[in-house]
Amino acid sequence: MQKEFTSDQHQFRQSLARFMQAKSTPVDVRRQMLTEQGYDAEVWQQLCAELGVAGIHIPEQYGGFGFGQIELGIVMEEMGKNLFCGPFLASSVMASSALLHCASEAYKEQLLPDIAMGVSIVTLVLDSLDGPEDVGSLLHEDGGVLNGAAKIVLDAASADLMLVVASSSSGLGLFLVKANDTGVNVTSRESLDPTRKLSEVALINVSAQRVGDVDLGNLQEIWRDCSVALAHEMVGGAQHLLTSTVEYTKLRVQFGRPIGSFQALKHRCADLLMEVEFARAATYHAARLLDAGNAAGLAAVNESEAEVYAPHMAKALAADTYCNVARAAVQLRGGIGFTWEDDTHLWFKRAKSSEVLLGGPDRHREWMMQLIEGEVS
Amino acid sequence: MNHNDIKQEVTGWLEQNWSTELSLLEWRNRLLEGGWAAPNWPVESLGRGYSVDETQVVNDVFRRLGIVFASQGGPRRLAAETILAHGNDEQKQRYLKQTLTGEHAWCQLFSEPGSGSDLAGSSTKAEKRDGRWIINGQKVWTTSAHHADYGILLARSDWDLPKHQGLSYFLIDMHQPGVEVRPLRQMNGHASFNEVFMTDAEVSFDDLLGGEGNGWAVAASTLSVERRGFAQARQSGISSVERVGRVYDEYEAELAIDNEPYTWYPQRQGRVDLVLDRAKKTGAIASASTRQEIAKLLSMKRASELAAEQAEATRRAGTNEIIPAGSIGKLAASVIARQAAHVHTLISGSDAMLSGEHSAESGMVAETLISVPAISIAGGTDEIQRNIISERVLGMPKEQRSDTGPFRDIKRNT
């Protein structure tokens, strides 16, 4: 497998970084996090039009650019560095993944092109964000009508459409709901990370179209895709915090010298750099394996490279790393790091939010162990 | 040069010259005459001036056919490469040949009881007296000193200069009355290293390497050979070709001596390879908390391999990115080894009180638990690696120094 980035990938990253630095400064982020939708629709449209990010990894046959997990990872990483506010994770990553894994051909053709253009915002409604095994107990379909509630849904306040995973007489299914239909009740909830907009979605006798069947297997695949994407975001955020923290320690003077010259701080930063490097390597590795698996079917991938646990390893490493870096980023700044005025808390909160979204590190490590045991025996 | 031409030439030469009935010395002398002992060395110094890739072609042929290489075990290589880089013609003439044949064994006399991490703080004295250098002092952690004929020695020749400037680098004869070698027993019971005491030991003026006062620069080049060696070391083993014959017997005997200090090295790295099987065999894998610790261990191990591969790919792609692979890899090895020891302890439970033949994995687990502390010290402590990473990669400011000015006036261990 190719380990280094191509020059196209480098250029793509640079274009994204320039866009983010111009349009997603901490001032922009602070402005957006106070709004209900949480992002600037104009900037989102511009990002989709100029760089095509919304459909970067969606196959060309469904109106996307047909790139792979690496390019998706680059987008998530750059967004994570700059805390970009927008419905990318909800719509382009989570809803797209559900469609690609579960929907019938007709629905893929109907829904994916608008997601890929960024003109339609679709969110995935799951009654658990902890693990695939827990999905389907609170949302039910009967006779084409949905009832139940999901406590936490990403970007529901800005979504046009919702994809709901619900239990039914014929097993779990994926159902399409229009956000403004009667019976769809979206209630914004206060989120720990104000840059990530969360709502409760309650469905009362909502008529829905079944777009595909869901089972534990394809839920796990959705989980793997989205966990790797999220790991990229966390690696980006961790890298940003490490860089900014190191810069701060070079400037801040106490006891007549820059605090960055004290070994207590240097050694902590060295440990964090190692963690970030490892989380990044594990995450791109997982992305490459997903690409190889998508191209050939996971079973067809060279046996020594078929580490099916890689996505879980990446998510757990990235989550622990981001949280460790975030704690250090506050601590090494001292008092100023705990103020609202300083920007560090914006990333700190994202770290916590992403740590537990789609299962915390302990759950991912448990899934990893189950897969390793399965492989070995 | 064209790789196929090289392959043909070396294969042809081997057909004429290789014989398993030669003595090891006879064979290596032939290797030297043919110019195949060190193909990457310059033509005027026993080599062929080959590039890394060209040398690899030769090595591959040797490996495939099961040919015995020139002697390159541990300290021999350090000495040879350093003499090649810094020696004068006469020194190269005197030492290189018999080092490559294996006739001369070497040891590295760098670390001292008073200067470990602070290698440039060496206080072994080198004084000019009666037309020779007289050496007084003590060295420690000297691998294979008891088998060595010569040592590469770092010592202080001027106490009035700042510490890095007052050092000189010598080639010292280990077989003389002024040199005493004593084994140094470690906390795990092995004695893989020595202490070396030098009392009015003598070094001829001709055996000063790289000029008086230039010892730090020469030592740095030895250390860089050593670091590169960690990546390449011990992959020089011979292929599956059947090893029968005099040359193999003598080579095996040489290897046994060369490798003897390293039998516990896999244990100091934590024996991650044993973890999953042991966890299953003992039933410890059923414990949720143990599973978490195993997963952390395996993640760390795998991620460190992936990061190293990534760094290597980036290096090959020729970008200017700073890759801290060496120090990060070293630090990671410590973290992994400690976590592995922790996991082995969880798996063993009270059985971890036992040691020796009748304990887990015929004593390998017990040896692991008491060998792991070495990995975060040997070859540069974790703390030194963290300094390197934070200063060279993250660009953080250096600690203020208190070891400037004449060495004589610097506070040191007494």
How does this structure look, described?
The complex is a heterodimer of chains A (377) and B (414). With 377 residues, chain A is of the alpha+beta class. Chain A has three domains: 111 residues, Orthogonal Bundle (Butyryl-Coa Dehydrogenase, subunit A, domain 1), CATH 1.10.540.10; 92 residues, Butyryl-CoA Dehydrogenase, subunit A, domain 2, CATH 2.40.110.10; 161 residues, Butyryl-CoA Dehydrogenase, subunit A, domain 3. In chain A, the strands form three sheets. Chain A has a four-stranded mixed β-sheet. The longest helix of chain A is centred in the middle third of the chain and has 36 residues. Chain A is globular. Chain A starts with 6 loop residues before the first helix and ends with a helix. Chain B has 414 residues and is of the alpha+beta class. Chain B has three domains: 92 residues, no CATH class; 157 residues, Butyryl-CoA Dehydrogenase, subunit A, domain 2, CATH 2.40.110.10; 130 residues, Up-down Bundle (Butyryl-CoA Dehydrogenase, subunit A, domain 3), CATH 1.20.140.10. Chain B contains 13 helices and eight strands. In chain B, strands 1-4-5-8 form a four-stranded mixed β-sheet. Chain B has a four-stranded antiparallel β-sheet with strand order 2-3-7-6, with no helix packed on it. In chain B, α1 packs across α3, α4 runs antiparallel to α5 and α11 runs antiparallel to α13. Chain B starts with a helix and ends in a 21-residue tail after the last helix. In chain B, 39% of the residues are buried. About 1% of the residues of chain B have low confidence. At the A-B interface, α7, β10, α8, α9 and α11 of A face α10, α11 and α13 of B.
